[in-house]
């Protein structure tokens, strides 16, 4: 009997649906699946109020954990053969509930010397968040053996508009009836079941060495070089903003609120003015950057933790 643990936090249910579909093709009478939902002691309301959405930015980005409900004691009775870890990104960083779990004693016990497959459900900027997650997994002595990254495949700017409609309005539907649906498409969510087959094969053989290549053949990860560049640059700037805002006070402090409004305006400027300019520069320099872009593509598609 193989024991699989699925750890997840999912506000809208999108990531949970993806995970459930992956699991659907792994389960049989030789597999026992345990789900562990991460529950913050103080929950995050959905749909988001705009000020609450921005208020989680400093703690998300600086990876400051929140308190989680203690897992049931029975969770620790088993040694798991594989952990599927649901990963959603908040402000280019693993979400606060996920980060909090990975920094907990519970994670250290559950993940130690255990193969982990990360399953991402994000808008489209997840690469640097996954790099941060790799470090958190290393600190738990876990072994990352696979990664599946499902994203909104529409144009970046379209996905910004539609995710705002979803997060603040609460419905994953077509804004004004004309925009595409936000988030990961129904087709990709349903299609996630295909990833279960190679995972099961690796699990049965107890050999995960070629799992990521098998997942890549199934289109588990697509690296878009411009988004990767934007993610890296935005991380540098977010770091300055987060460190500045955290010093302005705790939740509800008026100074902090004022600076979060400035950050909101900065984000709008970055997305609608700066990013298109950087995109033009990116296109112009593409020919001379080709080698390093293809090296990065290979690395970010892999589950290796250091660049070669
Ligand atoms: C506060 C917040 C920040 C987010 N930041 C990002 C981001 O930086 N990159 C990204 O690709 N998606 C981002 N998303 C989208 C989430 O990764 C995720 O796809 C969405 O919240 C649905 O996940 P769920 O399964 O938890 O409902 C963000 C969502 C929230 C709520």
How would you describe this protein?
The protein has twelve helices and seven strands. It is an alpha/beta fold and 308 residues long. It has one domain: Rossmann fold. The strands form two sheets. Strands 2-1-3-6-7 form a five-stranded parallel β-sheet, sandwiched between helices. A two-stranded antiparallel ribbon has the order 4-5. The longest helix has 48 residues, at 254-301. The chain starts with a strand and ends in a 7-residue tail after the last helix. The mean pLDDT is 97. The structure holds flavin mononucleotide (FMN). Flavin mononucleotide (FMN) is lined by residues 10-12, 14-15, 53, 56, 88-92, 121-126, 167, 183.
Primary descriptors:
binds flavin mononucleotide, single chain, 308 residues, 13% strand, 12 helices, Rossmann fold, five-stranded parallel sheet, two-stranded antiparallel sheet, alpha/beta
Give the topology.
Layout: E1 2-8, H1 14-24, E2 31-37, H2 50-55, H3 57-61, E3 82-87, E4 89-90, E5 93-94, H4 96-102, H5 105-111, E6 115-122, H6 127-139, E7 143-151, H7 156-169, H8 186-191, H9 196-205, H10 211-217, H11 225-246, H12 254-301
Parallel strand pairs: 1-2, 1-3, 3-6, 6-7
Antiparallel strand pairs: 4-5
Helix pairs in contact: 11-12
This protein binds flavin mononucleotide.
Flavin mononucleotide binds near residues 11, 56, 88, 92 and 183.
């Amino acid at each position: 009997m193989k024991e699989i643990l699925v750890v997840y936090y999912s506000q809208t249910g999108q990531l949970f649906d993806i995970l459930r579909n992956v699991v659907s093709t792994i389960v049989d009478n030789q597999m026992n699946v345990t789900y562990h939902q991460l529950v913050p002691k103080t929950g995050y309301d959905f749909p988001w109020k705009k000020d609450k959405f921005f208020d989680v930015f400093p703690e998300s980005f600086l990876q400051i954990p929140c308190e989680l409900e203690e897992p049931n004691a029975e969770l620790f009775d088993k040694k798991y053969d594989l952990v599927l870890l649901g990963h959603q990104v908040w402000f280019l960083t693993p979400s606060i509930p996920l980060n909090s779990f990975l920094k907990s004693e519970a994670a250290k016990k559950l993940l130690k010397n255990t193969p982990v497959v990360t399953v991402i459900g994000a808008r489209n900027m997840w690469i640097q968040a996954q790099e941060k997650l790799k470090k958190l997994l290393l600190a738990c002595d876990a072994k990352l053996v696979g990664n599946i990254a499902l994203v909104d495949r529409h144009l970046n700017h379209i996905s910004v508009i539609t995710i705002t409609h979803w997060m603040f309005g609460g419905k994953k539907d077509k804004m004004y009836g004309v925009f595409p649906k936000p988030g990961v498409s129904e087709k990709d969510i349903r299609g996630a079941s295909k990833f279960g087959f190679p995972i099961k094969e690796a699990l049965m053989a107890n050999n995960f060495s070629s799992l990521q290549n098998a997942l890549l053949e199934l289109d588990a990860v697509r690296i878009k070089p411009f988004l990767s560049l934007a993610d890296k640059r935005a991380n540098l700037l977010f770091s300055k903003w987060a460190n500045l805002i955290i010093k302005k006070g705790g939740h509800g402090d008026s100074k902090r609120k004022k600076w979060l409004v400035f950050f909101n305006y900065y984000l709008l400027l970055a997305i609608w003015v700066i990013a298109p300019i950087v995109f033009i520069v990116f296109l112009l320099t593409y020919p001379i950057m080709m080698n390093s872009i293809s090296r990065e593509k290979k690395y970010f598609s892999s589950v290796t933790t250091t660049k070669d």
